[in-house]
UniProtKB/TrEMBL annotation:
PROSITE patterns: ACONITASE_1 (PS00450), ACONITASE_2 (PS01244)
Record's protein name: Aconitate hydratase A
PANTHER family the record matches: ACONITATE HYDRATASE B
Cofactor: [4Fe-4S] cluster
Reactions catalysed according to its record: citrate = D-threo-isocitrate
Keywords of this entry: 4Fe-4S, Iron, Iron-sulfur, Lyase, Metal-binding, Transit peptide
Domain of life per record: Bacteria
A GO MF label: 4 iron, 4 sulfur cluster binding
Ranges for domain Aconitase A/isopropylmalate dehydratase small subunit swivel: 563-692
GO BP terms: tricarboxylic acid cycle
Pfam families the record matches: Aconitase, Aconitase_C
Amino acid sequence: MSALDESPVVMAARLYPEMARKLEIVRRRISKPLTLADKVLLGHLDDPAGQELIPGSSYLKLRPDRVVFQDVLGQTGMLQFMQTLRERVAVPTSIHCDHLIQARVDGASDLRISVLENSEVYDFLRSAAAKYGAGFWEPGAGIIHQVVLEHYAFPGALIIGTDSHTPNAGGLGACAVGVGGADAVETIAGLPWEVLYPKHIAVYLTGALSGWTAPKDVILNVAGQLTVSGATNAIVEYIGPGARTISATGKATITNMGAELGATTSMFPADEHMLTYLDATGRGDLAPLIQQYASMLFEPDAAVEADPERYYDRVIRIDLSALEPHIVGPHSPDRARPLSHLAAELKSAGNTIPETISAALIGSCTNSSYEDMSRAADVAAQARAHGLKAVVPFLVTPGSEQVRATIARDGQLDELEALGGTVLANACGPCIGQWHRDPRATATPNAIVTSYNRNFPRRNDGSPATMNLIASPEIVTALTLAGRLSFNPATDSLIGADGKPFMLTAPKPAPEVPPTRFAPGRTTYVAPPADGRDITLSVDPASERIQLMQPWAAWDGRDFTGMPVVLKTRGKTTTDHISPAGPWLRFRGHLDKFSDNLLNGATNAYTGEIGKTTNGLTGESGLTPAQAARQYRAAGQAWVVIGDSNYGEGSSREHAALSPRLLGGAAVIARSFARIHESNLKKQGLLALTFVDPDDYDRILDDDRIDLIGLDRLAPKEPVECRFNHADGSSETVWLKHSYSDAQLQWFRAGSALNVLHKSAA
Ligand code: SF4
């Protein structure tokens, strides 16, 4: 059996002693107690003896145990892997078909139609997986993070994935990080994975959840405290006695949504709940190994947990027993408040959130565990007993075929359907804009409630008028009965079919795994053959969906001068704004077609328009940024994007860097960057620069031409000179910062990180 086919227990038996050996070397060097994150990260160092170890400053070179791709970024990932000239992935790898399945009617028919619509993409991915030695999870298998939790994650594993909610696997004690496609491609090509050594944040939990409060409320509360950028370049560890009271899937909900804080990842120490889940998912044979290494590898040193304020950069303390159900949004996951405060907020002056709910959705990769569905079904059963059904459209997304088959077997699905729920395919669907919603429902401001994780405008149905408020599955299910956001099931009554008022009781504590084992459902996994070299990749040259990629040109050694600003964005500019999903998702494998959406959702800082700009060379207005960029490229003129704070937050969407590169962009200059997007820009050979003085953002005028000077002297930590040339002939010089290491500057000079890799394979 090759290392690529190893079961988790075989992998762990090889990995744990190796981690212990590396940590011993590290401990001799730094001689201080270690946090959980440090143990797992530093136990995966490529060079534990020589690696520089300064949190927030050093770039760690690590050896991940597994790489996972979802289908959208898997296309680009495999297209880029072809450019490395490798014959086979060097690290266990899997590809998951989950993002492209549209929600129209119900799970069965939606899956059938989506398989037909996306056959070119699935055929390409299936052939690439087989050729290069990756596992392939077919459409309908489930959402990547749920499948990883069920099959691949285990305490101490280092997993990287081309999706920002990869940290879901932290619920099983893995260090699981969302990365750009280029990072993933380099890793499967056999290079170490490089990441900024994260800082350390602890959430110290005491007490235990009860009543209507769920694991979701922990992360909704933390999101309110830390905000969407408060954990940038940090790992969040959930420690303390309360952490050991939460089920493994509840932990996964919390670590999944840690992505909304900008965290590198989030993790829990190993405990009995993880062993219970591993056993229920057929990996019980890991237990003796985990127990053997638990204190050494899978929990913080005792001194750290006893005095966290001394060892973490920041500590948040939460008493689970006192935590109330929360609800966050709309438009940002850090707009948090206890549910009990929402009714008053809706009545307050200036409120813009509609009280009436237009649709309710539960499930997704974040909240579709057996426990979640059981608690939602408990609420549904209470409604049935009083003759009530959901008064708003109610959509249920099982996270995986295994969850779907199990809750179909055990009755939860029947209960949710009896409430009026429509069960969608085991896929992302409405969570990523693949929701065919009646346009009449989205034309005017409308509120939806979901148990999802991300709620930026347009995220779910493509409409800026839709406001997504996020809560736990049991709260969302309760809200379907009242149809209004001002309802609080803990204090408010409903009217039963008999005309009498009644109150819901809090759902009973639910089993964290099924009493009998999970039902596997239909077979959805295709293992790669032992040797795939003779397999031909399925790519039609006339395809609208898949386009083979060519290496980017190397930097020509000259400064970038006279660059127009393709768009200066104002306010929140997420990767959803830079590279919108929804209907564009179908073109993700065809970069040229896809790039027409560049910056379509971003706000023009000068005019306030969304996705509109002016050609700075010709004065033509009303263009999309992609149109302007194509005109500049045709004129042989490089251009620049100016971004606001935390530019590129949100999904780890590599196309937000690929599209500007394809269309001739040279640099993005922002007040600050989100971590993954900054890394993606670097990998594609673009310059990611930030203002030394953030106020210089305001000095750029819409018809300025920008020079970047002295690029042949670019060096780590050295500022970059930038000149704004104003239309009146005047100019001013400002200074820019960057975070490029020496190796990353090679990417810029070679044209991309892949070009550097390509050279090393040739
Ligand atoms: S967050 Fe949504 S789109 Fe992303 S993997 Fe989860 S279900 Fe899919």
